[in-house]
Automatic annotation (TrEMBL):
Domain Transcription regulator PadR N-terminal: 10-77
Methyltransferase domain ranges (all copies): 127-232
Residue numbers spanned by region Disordered: 344-375
Record's protein name: Uncharacterized protein
Bias kind Acidic residues: ranges: 355-366
A Pfam short name: PadR
InterPro entries in the record: Methyltranfer_dom, Methyltransf_Superfamily, SAM-dependent_MTases_sf, Tscrpt_reg_PadR_N, WH-like_DNA-bd_sf, WH_DNA-bd_sf
Length: 375
């Protein structure tokens, strides 16, 4: 049996004491989000009674209370232990290391999809200087180097020494790539020295997104472009028979786990405040049908436990939340926004100094398209 079986639901409903038929169904609704049909309810009761897992108490008709037998309680406890074991096998409990997590994320179909949207929007060209703000272990530096060619330059910055070391190792054979240990809030770069810049799921974590955007605006040349890909964790939707549990989980992620949990929707306003124009906002929604794949990004067990500890729901509710995810049909979705911000002014031609170029032809901005995928 599993929690979606009628017999298991009835046993669980009776765990706290005897109930009659209507009260059993009310408890089932609380557990699963919906009531059993009369045939399912009374059929389950009849089968459980035949197995000596429940027994009737004195009463009349459908108002007659039913309780668990000792055999029934033992069966329920075995089933709950089995569910707990399934949950433990299904979900990761430990927090992955940052580099491992970023590498894992980059390998997903969802990440490949939104990263392609970002590359298309960035439109880095030969001779460009491209800046990757929060480059991590160098996931995207090679693709940037290919776009700017050996005649251009790619600068990656990150505050994590281990990530910087890894990025340098991975790009050692790319002379155009320069990886620096630096803070995006105070970039070690001259004013108007960069043609293209990007942030990829970085601004959700920084202390002051507005300051980072101001720094990006400072180092970009007139006509320069910043492309940002950032999630809005309030958009995280997880199907569950008890929607309030999913909402509580999402609120905890947006409130407590991610420093700037709704940064995705804030990017156009923040970019405009930093002096950019914002020609394009593309929402990219990831849809997950496989719970294991989603867990590798969303960390269901550890974050449900944190949510319970923080009072977003009870420990028992956290168990119900995880049990359903582990055993029921699964669907989750979250939206990431790809936002294009530009510095006013004509973009210099490749290889020319600022102020020496003619304006671009109308219509030369990169086209962006709406695609599924992101995380």
């Amino acid at each position: 049996m599993r929690t979606h079986d009628a017999q298991m639901l009835v046993l669980s409903a009776l765990a706290d004491g005897p109930l009659h038929g209507y009260a059993i169904n009310a408890a089932v609704e609380k557990l699963s989000g919906e009531r059993l049909g009369p045939g399912s309810l009374y059929g389950a009761l009849a089968r459980l009674e035949a197995k000596e897992l429940v027994e009737p108490l004195p009463g009349e008709g459908r108002q007659r209370p039913v309780r668990l037998t000792a055999k029934g309680r033992a069966a329920l406890e075995r089933e709950l232990r089995s569910l707990a074991e399934v949950t433990e096998r299904m979900f990761e409990a430990a927090v992955p290391d940052r580099i491992g997590y970023l590498d894992r994320l980059a390998g997903t179909a969802a990440a490949r999809s939104y990263k392609q949207v970002m590359r298309d929007a960035l439109a880095a060209r030969p001779d460009h200087t491209a800046l990757d703000l929060g480059c991590g272990p160098g996931t995207d530096l090679a693709a940037l180097a290919e776009a700017v060619t050996p005649s251009g330059t790619v600068i990656g910055v990150d505050t994590d020494p281990e990530a910087v070391d890894r990025a340098r190792e991975r790009t050692a054979d790319l002379p155009a790539v320069d990886v620096r240990l630096a803070d995006a809030h105070a970039l070690p770069l001259a004013d108007a020295s960069v043609d293209r810049a990007r942030t990829d799921r970085v601004l959700q974590h920084v202390a002051d997104p507005a300051r980072v955007l101001a720094e990006a605006r400072r180092v970009l040349r007139p006509g320069g472009r910043l492309v940002m890909g950032e999630p809005d964790w309030d958009s995280l939707a997880i199907d569950h028979p008890e929607p309030e549990l999913s909402r509580a989980y999402t609120r905890h992620i947006a409130d407590r786990i991610v420093r700037n949990g709704v940064i995705g929707r804030q990017l156009p306003r923040l970019a405009a405040g930093a002096g950019f124009t914002v020609p394009s906002v593309v929402p990219v929604t990831s849809v997950f049908r496989d719970v294991r794949a989603a867990d590798r990004i969303l960390g269901f067990q550890r974050n449900a436990e944190r949510a319970a500890a923080a009072g977003y729901f009870s420990e028992e509710a956290a168990r119900r939340f995880l049990d359903h995810l582990a055993t029921g049909p699964f669907l989750a979705a979250v939206t990431l926004y790809v936002v294009v911000a530009e510095v006013p002014g004509p973009e210099p031609e490749s290889g020319s100094e600022p102020g020496e170029s003619e304006p671009e032809e109308p219509g030369s901005e990169p086209e962006t398209e709406r695609r599924d995928g992101a995380s």
